[in-house]
Amino acid sequence: MRTKRIGVVVAAVAAGAAGVVVPLGGGASAAGQGVVAAPDISVQAVQADLNQLQSIANSNGGNRAHGRSGYKASIDYVKGKLDGAGWTTTIKTFSSQGATGYNLIADYPGGDANNILMAGGHLDSVPAGPGINDNGTGSAGLIEVALAVSQAKAKPTKHLRFAWWGGEELGLVGSTAYVNSLSAAEKSKIKGYLNFDMTGSPNPGYFVYSSSGQPTGSTTLQKTLEEYFVGINVQTETVTVGGRSDHAAFARAGVPTGGLFSGAEDRKTAAQARKWGGTANTAFDACYHKSCDKISNVNVQSLDRHTDAIAYAIWKLAGIA
Ligand code: DPN
Ligand code: ZN
Questions:
Q1: 43-77 as b/e: b if 16+ CB within 10 A
Q2: Phi and psi (nearest 5°) for 214?
Q3: How far is the CA of 53 from the centre of ligand 2 (A)?
Q4: Which of 55, 57, 87, 208 has its CA 20 to 30 A from that of 227?
Q5: pLDDT tens track of the chain, all 321 residues?
């Protein structure tokens, strides 16, 4: 969704800070106390999902937008990957601008039903293009993290629920419809919502949603995401996303929120280029909401790091031992 420009605040996340939890690669044993052994998610698997979303757009008029055939095909693709992989999926419909919209909700069986951790991102593109960075990247990362949870036969303490939202580009329509469909009791069981909208920007930044920049911004969620990047020696900045993505629907319902973002139409500053590489005075994503937001519009290193950060946060926050 495009509205106000975002405000970027520099956070002092010192690399190598004391007491930091260091992420381990797949197969490493969690010998040390407090060490979380989240797996290393294969970026090739995430890229394979993006290739599928690109080919869905190619065979459906070049986009995956609300009300268009490419959107429903995207939902069916994600559902197909999770069904039979240990997740319970439900398609929830809503109506907007005279067309049916679809959210995909996926529950991982088990965990405390009164203590739910949610993670999500929007699956719809704008009509102008295939929406591979916005938001194939967050969507594909969530698919592969969900599959990693079931492959690990994880037994999280919390109940895990992932969501792929429709109608975000029309104004957070799908996520808002979902939140509004919940009773007060159901809303209060959701103890946190993590949002992943744009994680592979071609000139990437590493932004963590600011806990103070959102009515229900959570310091726990912010710090957990930051911890991952400290562990890989990548500096982050906090960002105030405001009402520009689906976490806002959860914030309005009082649910603690957090998330990651690699940047959209704003330009990378010289200082940001020094710390992250890339090109100063150029947009983080020059193809934002354009027809060129296709496979070639993804920075694979950013996609890889952000996806591993999702896994790290899910493992740690859901209590996967
Ligand atoms: N909400 C994004 C879009 O779908 O257009 C853009 C965005 C994502 C902006 C995250 C800020 C933060
Ligand atoms: Zn988006």
A1: beebbebbebbbebbeebebbbbbbbebbbbbbeb
A2: -145, 140
A3: 15
A4: 87
A5: 655 444 444 333 333 333 334 344 433 344 444 445 899 999 999 999 999 999 999 999 999 999 999 999 999 999 999 998 999 999 999 999 999 999 999 999 999 999 999 999 999 999 999 999 999 999 999 999 999 999 999 999 999 999 999 999 999 999 999 999 999 999 999 999 999 999 999 999 999 999 998 899 999 999 999 999 999 999 999 999 999 999 999 999 999 999 999 999 999 999 999 999 999 999 999 999 999 999 999 999 999 999 999 999 999 999 998
Distances, alpha carbon 285 to alpha carbons 119, 120, 279, in Å: 23, 21, 11
Active site residues: 168
Which atom of ligand 1 sits closest to the CA of residue 168? 4
What the block records as the tokens of 318 is: 């859901």
229's tokens: 């990047």
Q: Which domains does the chain have, with CATH numbers?
A: 9-318 (3.40.630.10)
Residues with beta carbon inside 6 Å of ligand 1?
1-2, 6, 134, 168-169, 197-198, 241, 244-245, 261, 264
Q: Which of 1, 6, 137, 265 to mutate to test the pocket of ligand 1 (most atoms within 8 A of CB)?
A: 1
